[in-house]
Amino acid sequence: MPETPTATVRGPIRRPAPLRQAVYEALTEMIINGSLKPGQHLVEAELAESLGVSRQPIREALQRLQTAGWVDLRPAQGAFVHSPTTEECAQLLSVRALLETHSAHGAAQHATPHDVARLWELQQTGLTALAAGDARAIVEANAALHTHITHLSRNAVLAELIPQVDRRVRWYYMPIAKPRGKDAWSEHARIIEAIADRDADRAEELMRRHTQNTTDFYCKQIAAVAVHSA
Amino acid sequence: MPETPTATVRGPIRRPAPLRQAVYEALTEMIINGSLKPGQHLVEAELAESLGVSRQPIREALQRLQTAGWVDLRPAQGAFVHSPTTEECAQLLSVRALLETHSAHGAAQHATPHDVARLWELQQTGLTALAAGDARAIVEANAALHTHITHLSRNAVLAELIPQVDRRVRWYYMPIAKPRGKDAWSEHARIIEAIADRDADRAEELMRRHTQNTTDFYCKQIAAVAVHSA
DNA sequence: ATGGAGAATACTGTATGCAATCATCCCTCG
DNA sequence: CGAGGGATGATTGCATACAGTATTCTCCAT
Q1: Which ranges in A7-155 belong to alpha helices (H)?
Q2: Contact criterion met (CB < 8 Å) for B91 and A158
């Protein structure tokens, strides 16, 4: 059977690796792309069978998914896909703005020419995806760029915390990736320039405005959708 | 055998409750109070026996301990108590400063008179502990106060993220709690006043300076210890 | 004596089985 | 006809057993 109708079915995970990690990635993927819908009850046995593993790796993956905010784990009831609210999303974006701004400051202080070159590569990847109009690729490139800036800040705590926030932002960001893309990537370019100049304060300020623009754009988009659906 | 000499031995966990939670709390306690030393290899079977449970709850607790930053979990090798570095501590404090500052701003916007009254209660608890010279109680009161400010900000994402950073700061904070206490708690009082006045900008600025003072104090203390031990 | 190969050991990773708990549905009683 | 209580099925929580892998110790060769 090449594909069954139910969207949650998946082929077995590649064996030679920590299964819990593979399961974790598979489940996040399924949540992001909508195979697992918000509020849905995740039954361990079902997931285990569809992924071709036992319940144990599933349980461990679910625990990590909870701390990452993907699922809510209610004792003696099991896991439920997290239902995001617009309020929570605004909070996520505001915290992200804070952390990324701090991160940009540090990146500008520590970046080497080699690091900057890598940033320009990622920027190019993003522009290509933007030209192709591939929302999925745009979001991915965006995440890759921001992640790399985070690492350049040489702050392990930040690098640990930001992904927790950022991946969830990615989820919400998908629908607005294309319309927001053009401005976003030109802002990226200016941020990279500031980092290349080792101008920490300018990089910080540009990142602050960049994340603020994204937040504003998202809120407007939400409002528009709300009106449209009314 | 009522007690074995090894410091890691503990009585069984109270049964009627999620065991993984109880194990998690027991292990954090042991790490904080030094029963489990930094770098130490945590063997699942040993912990399981000493806590009177099977390996399963231990494993789940260790996973959570990893995401909280208490242990490092190396694949196929097991769990090791995290060894903090002064560099990492500085990063933790800087991130904490960022988050707490943002939190203070939100708290001043949303606080009700009842909330403010509660803050003054916590402040009083801290002053009492300070007068008694009980470092443990000081740290606890400090954490309680900051936690409550976080909740007042009405930002669920912040409230979720800050404890992850804050608990680890608490760990490092213990040795400097007493000498830092006097200034810290008078700064707290001014922050509470700003929150009571609903002056978000002032609260934010006061919190920024407060966390900055704490960071500076910590760094000086570390330097002093380094000189002393040299 | 020292370096390396191989085997023994110990530990983690995974699977399976059992008991406790929660949700649901049906039956009975008011 | 509606509400409450109990039985049944499903699902989680925990424990045990097995397999794979990294580490360490020993023994042999150089």
Answers
A1: 19-32, 44-51, 55-67, 86-110, 113-132, 135-152
A2: yes
How far apart are alpha carbons A145 and B153 in whole angstroms? 30
Q: What is d(CA A115, CA A107) in angstroms, rounded to the nearest whole number? A: 10
Chain A residues with CB under 8 Å of B161 CB are 95, 161, 164-165
Least confident span in A49-58, A172-181, A186-195, A209-218:
A172-181
Q: Write the class of the CATH domain A86-229.
A: mainly alpha
> How many residues are listed for chain B in this entry?
230
* A51 CA from D16 C1′ (Å): 24
Going by pLDDT thresholds of 50, 70 and 90, the confidence category of residue A225 is confident
Average pLDDT over residues B48-53: 94
* Whether residue B4 has pLDDT greater than 70: no
List all nucleotides in chain D with at least one atom under 7 A from a protein Cβ: 10-17, 20-23
What are the residue ranges of CATH 1.10.10.10 in chain A? 19-81
**How far is A83 from A177, CA to CA, in rounded Å?**
21
Kindly indicate the confidence band of residue A8, based on its pLDDT and cuts at 50, 70 and 90.
very low
β-bridge partners, B80: B41, B72
pLDDT at A3: 33
Beta strand segments in chain B, E:
41-42, 71-74, 78-81
Nearest C-alpha of chain A: how many angstroms from B185?
26
The predicted-structure confidence for A47-100, as pLDDT tens digits, reads as follows 999 999 999 999 999 999 998 899 999 998 999 999 988 888 889 999 999 999
Determine the Cα–Cα distance for residues B212 and A132; give it in Å rounded to an integer.
46
Distance CA A50, CA A42 (A): 12
Q: What is the CATH number of domain A19-81?
A: 1.10.10.10
Window B10-69, strand C contacts by Cβ < 7 Å:
16, 41-45, 55-56, 59
Task: With CB atoms and an 8 Å threshold, state whether A95 touches B161.
Answer: yes
**What would the pLDDT profile of A111-153 be if each residue is shown by its tens digit?**
999 999 999 999 999 999 999 999 989 999 999 999 999 999 9
> Is the minimum CB–CB distance between A102 and chain B shorter than 8 Å?
yes
On the question of pLDDT at A161 being above 80, the answer is yes
Q: Which nucleotide is nearest to B56 (CA to C1')?
A: D14
Residue B95 has its nearest CB partner, among A64, A161, A164, at: A161
Q: CATH 1.20.120.530 occupies which residues in chain A?
A: 86-229
